Structure prediction request, 393 residues.
Amino acid sequence: MDKKIIYMDHSATTPVDSQVLDEMLPYFTKNYGNPSSIYSIGRESKKAIEDARERVAKAVFAQPREIFFTGSGTEADNWAVKGVAYSNKNKGNHIITTTIEHHAVMHACQYLESDGFEVTYLPVDENGLVSPEQVLEAIKPNTILISIMFANNEIGTIQPIGEIGKIARDKGIYFHTDAVQAIGNIPINVSELNVDLLSISAHKFYGPKGIGALYIRKGVKITSFIHGGAQERGRRASTENVAGIVGLGKAIEIATLNIDDYNKKLIELRDRTIFEIMKKIPFVRLNGHQHKRLPGNVNFSFEFIEGESLLLMLDMKGIAASSGSACTSGSLDPSHVLLSIGLPHEIAHGSLRLSFGKDNTHEDIDQLMKELPVIVERLREMSPLYEKVKRGN
Prediction:
């Protein structure tokens, strides 16, 4: 019999919702026609894509013609950053972003630096926030793009996107936000927020992997991302992933319709977990803003332990979580996000991210709090530094 897994890593990915899967399945076997074909099953596929486009547009208060499907949130980020940079280099070469962006934005900006662009990486405070004043002060006559994530994938901090968007609009500068973690967790209206480009990834809100979208406000000057066909109005060539697009459309519809009830549940689980950990485990630090954070995000650093060992021991107890440390990706460096909020290397290495979803329960928290304090204490017993603290040295 399979061991029950308590899954607490929804910021990494989510299971596909059964309603989403049901809508996708016919497009694998029955309605498999190429959307570019003129016969009936091709037209059916084309209609399904346009229906999904309307659903995505409705979810963020955009127009369907402003939604372009991509292969992932990472692709959407790359397209937004590089596409705007290259299409507007006659106006300037300066980009503003932050030190805590997802690597899809960070690495795209670093690539552009190697090609002659100038990038300002704004620092954040100890809670992971960047201020609108910082953004305003960083603007130069040659600034062409501001790219700041909506909510951080590691520490959950939500940025003042509306205020930053107003600054960008007033200055006539394009504003992109990576909303991969925000969709389904935060109500988003691109017009009210003055957002010009916004990235989406389906698998973060119970849709399939391998499909994303980029909102591009009408009138934004941006280069095509893939050449070779007329798909996505000539901006992103290749035969469409019809089933994936259908899944994205259904998933975002469900996520936005149920957002209030979903958030209420996640906030209860989040706040209880934060309270329990701070009450029962000494030498811990909550990472990210206490209140301006994603509803289901909990991120703690535990002194005197190493995050990867903590994850492995939780996994042995049937609890799936993630760490702020990048060790599991083959790097010995701790998370750039945790370093950016001022954590020293040794504490950043001992971090744990818990991200809750619709199937998590208070019983899951009970089990977590039964296992976590014991595991943390066991790992700390191996640390000579912890022994010194216990002896009062």
